[in-house]
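Something for you to look into today, if you have time. Could you write out one complete protein record for me, on any chain you like? The space below this message is yours for that.
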Amino acid sequence: MLSVRGLTIRYGSDVALENVDLDVRRNEVFGIIGPAGSGKTSFLRTLNRMDEENSAMSVEGTILFNGRDIHQIRNVYNLRQRIGVVFPLPVGLPMTIYDNVALSPRLRGVKKKSKLDEIVERCLQRAALWDEVKDRLTALGSLLSGGQQQRLTIARALSQEPELLLLDEFSIAVDPVTTMRIEDVLRDLKDEMTIVMVTNLVQQARRLADRTAFFLNGDLVEVGETEELFTGEVKDQRTRDYVEGRFG
């Protein structure tokens, strides 16, 4: 689904990521691990051209999404509909729970209330939030707890019907119980879409990711089957040291 070649990211004269080559397969959870400052979030931002919102950020190289260079896609909003993003801190839009989820379908032209109702319920179900909010859909989404807001953010991303879902530290602001619930959701979603997940929690990558890339100081150190990175032979001793907690 995703093919990255020669990707280099700079902020002014500072190199955040240099000459990265990797592929992401369809319907896999692809994990990205590494300490803070290793270039993980910068990498994620390039995948749906969020770098264009930051004038200090420059990108070189090629990113192919379903075989097509993302920078050749004229309608960036269409690209971002196909590539959803969930950020580290939950951001409930200043509208009702229902409207948070219905926003994207409405922008696509869905107007029939029965269809919108169906989409909202389905997305909230898939985000493991429906049972908690089904009787208060007209309440403000921003009044939900942190964990509920993060699941609302996931439901909102799912309402775009993305082919690729980008997750940037989705569990950083939620409690362990909610984290496990979201992880269960992600396992189910893999049947329907591809997921690229940035996480500082190496055990979370081990639980969820089919394959994992290790970034360090702006370099892609290695990428491989997740369980192999944790239990098998690794190409670089720094990978073993990181996943075993010797630094980071």
The chain has ten helices and ten strands. The mean pLDDT is 92. The domain at 2-243 is CATH 3.40.50.300 (Rossmann fold). Strands lie at 2-11, 14-24, 29-33, 57-65, 68-69, 83-86, 164-168, 194-198, 211-216, 219-225.
